Amino acid sequence: MEQFKRRFLYLLFVLALILIPLQSAFAGGADHPNIGETLPLFSVIPFAGMLLSIALFPLLAPKFWHHHFGKISAFWAVVLAVPLLIFYKGLAVYEILHIVLADYVPFLILLGALYTVSGGILLKGTLRGTPVVNTTILAIGTVLASWMGTTGAAMLLIRPFLKANAHRKNRTFMVVFFIFLVANAGGSLTPLGDPPLFLGFLRGVPFFWTFNLLPHMIVVCTILLAIYFLFDMYYYKKEGAQTPPDDGVKEPIRLEGAYNFVFLGGIIAAVLMSGMAKWGEISILGIHRTVQDLARDGILILMAVASMVFTPKPVREGNAFTWFPIKEVAILFIGIFITMIPCLKILQAGTKGELSFLIEAVNQPAHFFWVTGILSSFLDNAPTYLTFLNTALGRFYAGVPELQGVGLLIQENPIYLLAISAGAVFFGACTYIGNAPNFMVRSIAEEAGTPMPSFFGYLLKYSIPILLPIFALVTFIFFI
Amino acid sequence: MKIEKLLFPTKFGELDLNSLESIFPLKDAGLKEVVLYYVIPREEVGFVPYGGYLKEEEQRIREEARIRFEDWQKKLTGAAIDSRIVIEVGDPVADILKTADKEGIDMIVIGRKKIGADRSLFGSRTTQIVTRSLIPVLVSKYMVEVKYEGETVTRINKDIFGIPLLASDWSKPSLKALELLTSFNGIVQKAHICHVIDVKISGRVGTEELHRIEKESKYRLDGYKERLESAGIQTEVHLGAGKSPSEIIRISRDVGATMIIIGTTGKDRLQAFVIGSTSHRVAQLSELPTLLVP
Q: Are A163 and A127 in contact (CB under 8 A)?
């Protein structure tokens, strides 16, 4: 007891040491000069290092990366944070706290809640992997992705999809199209669908504004589903239209843990509420956060806890539910968000910042679609989206506060935000590293014995020949 | 009820082979096959961040497990017990329970853990298996360190089936435990049966009612004794009073038991926390191997 008391007092002392200077540093309120105008270009190196680590380590040293990705993430965060704190002191602390409290925490809470709730829904039954059944599963997954997140929809459907096709000889293309549609393109309609859109929502993009991507999504998904159906028909016939070995037991299709859809509804309602309600602001460590945002985060946590409490263990085990992927996202994204600060700030400074050349070069909607897209293919699409959202803000509304700038962008130049959003969401499908669910789907497929192409195999055999022509068509129809 | 096929999941911890050897006497009670089982935790090989799956790593771990198991199989063959090796990637708790069901296993044997900070002799995985299993689970505890009269003593549980103590609360699982104990007739030297009039009961009834309960308990104990003796097992009965878990452990020490057999009603964690689970508490606190029968 005595030891516990001593530890508690020590903890209080350490917290006081940290928090008192922070509070005094930010007592001044929201008037913070934009450090992006003075930050040197090399300050984006840790961000580049972080993203390159994510891109290259899984390829070059996967085992090392698997065991040490947390240390690598921490390394880049420290490489950025220490000099930033030395040179910018209170301002740096403010920026770090701001990105953690206003972006990282809500981002992680949403992902965690969607992951937990969707992990409690188990699709059971005997499905036979014919072209029609498979295309239907992909279409359902595509629709669900915007409402339960690409990760949630992918986790719900990938195992039944693999099981239904276990008897099929050629399964690789099926998983690749699953990644294209369910893990990426399907998530383009709401901020719940894909992490970049939620980050946009946190920065002032209205919940239903992303519905403007519906025509783009219909074009991409219809073409992909049609190509998939033709591929599947071709292979189905080539394989001799095999039927699965009949084990004599045909289970009817059913959902276990379907009440998790109620919790999913709670998540959607909470996110919607936070975009509509105006309940004022409070300051946490000098960072202004709206009451409705905090209420949303609280409700999301509540939904996740309720899902954990009410869902029987065997249901989650049927989904092979594990916290590991969400832990990975939490560890990697704290590094990404912290190292991203200089890049975002410099871009927000517009032509006054060191990245003015980028702002001047990327000036047409088609440029934004392709540059955001290509970078989203090789870097995670969430930070890429934010980077180019800030590029657009820097271009049109340099020096205007972010929330106001986003509002003006939607009113006056919505095509740019559409191009950035579509680029981030659609191109995330181009590689395994474009979007977090891609690697989870790959891992589950490989564990189930489906051979998956290498990083470059995926790119050369599938992404370039199939996705890029579709994206060219999207550019032609919507962005020129 | 007879143990013919058992599942031996392992993490290849120290003394796991000794734990396996300690159940060899079951051969004389009808044991035919042991399924040696290793689960490669999914997180060891899957979900490489942005990378996917470590297929080669999985192969390496599989091969290592196979080599170790093949060495163990020699011991089993020497004891004339058939064995099979199953290695899977997955979630250990879920897959142990699933495999037990799929393979038609009669009993799961899980290893021991050194004494923990909470004096518990097993960890969270063991707790989950014990709580959720629909078949008997033997927590083998080959070597444990226990506090005895203020000193830490190391105890080796080798001949575990010699003097079993069956703790009964007259429930259905207790009857199943009795039935199981009956099937050990070839390997048991002497069995003990105990029942504890728990303090929750003795504390709320009058002396007269307590005497009635005492009389009835003795009567039931004699019934149990008769069942075992008719199966050829020499038996002694004991009636205790007080807090059930500590009383059962006290009796087990007094009679020099080598194992505790106890029925378990399968309370989940919440129920166990709120109303307590005697069987789980006994399994956690006793230095003896504990066979929990659901």
A: yes
